[in-house]
Amino acid sequence: MSKLYILAFIFLFISCDSKRIVSKDDAIFIDYDEEQVFDWNNTIQIKSAVSLEATDDCVLSYARKCLVSGKCIVYHDEKQKAIFVFDEKGAFLYMIDAVGGGPDEYTEIKDIAISCDKEFILVLDNKSVVYFDLKNGQFQNRISLPQDKASNFYRFANVDKQTFYFWSTEKENSLYLYENGVMKVMEKRVGFPFVCQKFYYDSENSLNYISDYGAFEIQVLEQDCLKNKYSFDFGSLNFPKSLIPKNVTEFEQVDDDVSFKCIMFAFETDDDLFIMTASPDGMLYNICLDKITHKVRSGKQDENAPLLVVDAVGGCFYGIIYPYHFSKSGILAEIIDSCGGDEESNPILVKFIFKK
């Protein structure tokens, strides 16, 4: 199995120095230090933390995705193929467990989203977008998608009641705009269709699109236009464009190339942009850009304090702590203790900002 697939699997189941940006063709230069570790304990300021309630009906494994919306926390449990919803204090509200072939069920969960009006949980399966009421988890509606396209859709975003974007693993096309029942190609495939995060909303409610394997770019989506926003430069460790794979065989052949290859996850607040990628030696690698001072913090994920960023709302980030993964010292360990966490506990959701 490739290193990046393993890293993505770990994310689903599971000291940093300030450096001024060096500009090269407006790209954000990352000065990679293979010994540098991202020091979560001394880099963030905790705003709040809640332990997600464990009950007989709610015992969580690792998060495929976790969304914070208004007063709700929506947790997609990959192993259970179910969605668990909590209030803002972590109290368990309800579970959506609707795998099946019925009119009010989903065949699988490829991706989840909160609807643009904040009233529904949306589930993308292999043929449709399924609507569940955010208040109680009850089935509400289904939008059927073109069957010659839907099976290749793995990520999506909802812009308004009639508009969606879909990221596809098709050989020819990578991005589609679905508007008023009409499907339109937005972008031709230019990189290998590695399945990871593709969309996120920033603090100004702009929808952002993450480039495919082989590129390090983030663009803003505006109707049928893509506008460049961020680009990252790793110098001699940039993945050679000549090696961008076109199929799985080529992907496996270049996976051991000593370089950075793609953005796996990205989240953005008013002040900071956070991305996760994989280092040349196959370790999870965190990068935080201070949008005000143009400084970069970067380093490998700390195996003794593996906070995993899952969302950003307004001026704050949200991250998940799995208590049984942590060392016994540091601010994050203190959070676990204050929440009464132990090896049997559900994950803890932490709200934080990066220190200046």
Keywords for this structure?
356 residues, mainly beta, 6-stranded mixed beta sheet, 5-stranded antiparallel beta sheet, 5 helices, 27 strands, 43% strand
The geometry reads as globular
Biggest sheet strand order reads 2-3-20-19-18-17
SS strand fraction: 35-45%
Could you give a short account of the major beta sheet?
6 strands, mixed
**Mean pLDDT over all positions:** 89
Q: How large, in whole angstroms, is the Cα Rg?
A: 20 Å
Number-wise, the strands total: 27
- Regions with pLDDT < 50 over 5+ consecutive residues? 5-24
Query: What oligomeric arrangement do these chains adopt?
Result: single chain
Structural class: mainly beta
Distance between the termini: 39 Å
The helix content, as a percent range, equals under 10%
Give a verbal description of the structure.
The protein contains five helices and 27 strands. It has 356 residues and is mainly beta. The strands form six sheets. The protein has a six-stranded mixed beta sheet with strand order 2-3-20-19-18-17, with no helix packed on it. A five-stranded antiparallel beta sheet has the order 1-24-23-22-21, with no helix packed on it. A hairpin with a 4-residue loop joins strand 14 (163-168) and strand 15 (173-179). The longest helix is centred in the first third of the chain and has 11 residues, at 3-13.
Briefly say what this structure is.
The protein is mainly beta and 356 residues long.
Question: What's the SSE blueprint?
Answer:
Elements: H1 3-13, E1 18-20, E2 23-24, E3 27-29, H2 40-43, E4 44-51, E5 63-69, E6 72-77, E7 82-87, E8 92-96, E9 111-114, E10 120-124, E11 128-133, E12 139-144, H3 147-150, E13 153-160, E14 163-168, E15 173-179, E16 182-188, E17 199-201, E18 207-210, E19 217-222, E20 225-233, H4 248-254, E21 265-268, E22 272-278, E23 284-290, E24 295-300, E25 308-313, E26 316-321, H5 331-338, E27 348-354
Parallel strand pairs: 3-20
Antiparallel strand pairs: 1-24, 2-3, 4-27, 5-6, 6-7, 7-8, 9-10, 10-11, 11-12, 13-14, 14-15, 15-16, 17-18, 18-19, 19-20, 21-22, 22-23, 23-24, 25-26, 26-27
